[in-house]
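Quick start: load a record and inspect it. Here is Lipase domain-containing protein:
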Amino acid sequence: MHLLIYFYLICTLTDVMVNGREHFSREGRFLRKILNDELEYGDGYGTKWINFPDDEGALHFINMTLDIEAPLSRNMLDNIEYRLYIWNHTGLYIMLNELAEPTDKSNLKLTSQILLSNLPLKVITHGWRSSADSAGVMSVKNAYLETKKSIVITVDWSITADNFLYPWVANETKAIGARIATFLDNLNYRYNISGKEMHLIGHSLGAHVMGNAGSRTKIRISRVTGLDPARPYFEYPPQEDSGKLDSTDAEFVDVIHTCAGLLGFQEPIGTADFYPNNGIAPQPGCDHILKFFEACSHSRSFFYFSESIKYPKSFPAHQCQSWIEFVENRCGQNGYMGESVNRNTTGKYFLRTNAFEPFGKLAA
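Running the structure step on this input writes:
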């Protein structure tokens, strides 16, 4: 295993040296990291086991060889929270049940006022060992509320997501997605919110949850955004009928890759796939965190996206087949990553970001 990685490292570094010092630096650091992880952690890192972060960056050990298919209990499925946020109050929300009714009946009038406003609906969720109170979910939710142009609902499935057995949680993203689909259908039925007005956003395992929600509704969802969709148990090791996010889950599926090949998907799975800084770890600004840069890079997708809500054209991207083509300026059409992406955008897009906020190269 070590010999194979070393051979790949030498071949790749030989290739990228021809294509410029900057490219060598980024690819070289990434591949050296893989080799160092193998030597430091032992054989099987990334294939049999991995350290996977929650949305707050805390690392957890995952055994990638487990086969766990115990179904969710009714109680767990009934404990999904739907939080409808009140305009001008980023911290105040109305709790809804799966029928899209407020759990506190005194909020019926305000709920109807918000949901009948004819504004587009944004539904946001988290990943493994996390909740709707995570910094990433909050950053996206707050950015939307500040624009005052959207209805915002966050979905908290932390009763399930908090289980330390990652393979089991990954397997249950389909069941969670199906329950969210029922909630979306009820929003459509009660408040006439059409699928054309619905945009689902999920990070890590939450990206697959939202993909399943989009594919299981009775209505056709307009858009699903996957923020560094989780790789373990979806891309590798591959599972039959994994329920992974894909381009058929909505009219338009955009994906932002920031820890590709380690914690996040490497291959394109959306209508349009964006690879900031080649989509790999370490993302700029994460390389000073030593071995924890995977967690930092994985969460960057959340913050790139939230910034794109505030500054819609801050992340210009270029359609290319590879990072090398991007570095050598051999790309096709241009587009924007994030909230303002054009629905006609298809294929793979590459771009650079700043190491610190504002991350977008054209942020105002």
